[in-house]
Amino acid sequence: MKDSKLFLGLAVGLAVGAAIGYLAGTDKKDQILDELNNVIGKVKESFNTAVSKYKEKGCSTSAESTD
Questions:
Q1: Distance CA 13, CA 7 (A)
Q2: What per-residue confidence (pLDDT) applies to 59?
Q3: For the range 3-9, what are the long-range contacts, defined as Cβ-Cβ under 8 Å and sequence gap of 24 or more?
Q4: Cβ atoms of residues 51 and 43 within 8 Å
Q5: Quick one: DSSP state of residue 26?
Q6: Could you tell me the residue range of the domain that residue 35 belongs to?
Q7: pLDDT (tens digit, 9 = 90+) per residue, 28-67?
Q8: Which of 10-14, 15-19, 57-61: highest mean pLDDT?
Q9: What's the rounded Cα separation, in Å, for the pair 59 and 51?
Q10: Domains held by the chain: number
Q11: Residue 60, SS3?
């Protein structure tokens, strides 16, 4: 079981390294990085919105339980 996890980790690392190497060597790397940054920004915004909603729900629930 440990060996299969090790090989899976090595394969994922190899794939990520190959992707980074490809991006570093391509002429469109600036365009790809801009698109990637846009996607990451949207994910972060969605995550922050979800956390805010969770906090609001948690605060209102705790306020109701103390009444």
A1: 10
A2: 66
A3: none
A4: no
A5: S
A6: 2-66
A7: 778 888 888 999 999 999 999 988 988 888 765 554 545 4
A8: 10-14
A9: 12
A10: 1
A11: helix
When pLDDT is cut at 50, 70 and 90, the band that residue 19 belongs to is confident
Identity (one letter) of the amino acid at 27?
Answer: D
3-state DSSP assignment of residue 20: helix
**H helix runs in the chain, sequence order:** 2-25, 29-66
- The pLDDT assigned to 14 comes to 93
Task: List the Cα angle 25/27/44 in 5-degree steps.
Answer: 85
Q: What's the rounded Cα separation, in Å, for the pair 19 and 31?
A: 15
Q: Which residue has the tokens 């995550």?
A: 47
What is the residue whose two structure tokens read 């919105």?
49
More confident residue, 63 or 21: 21
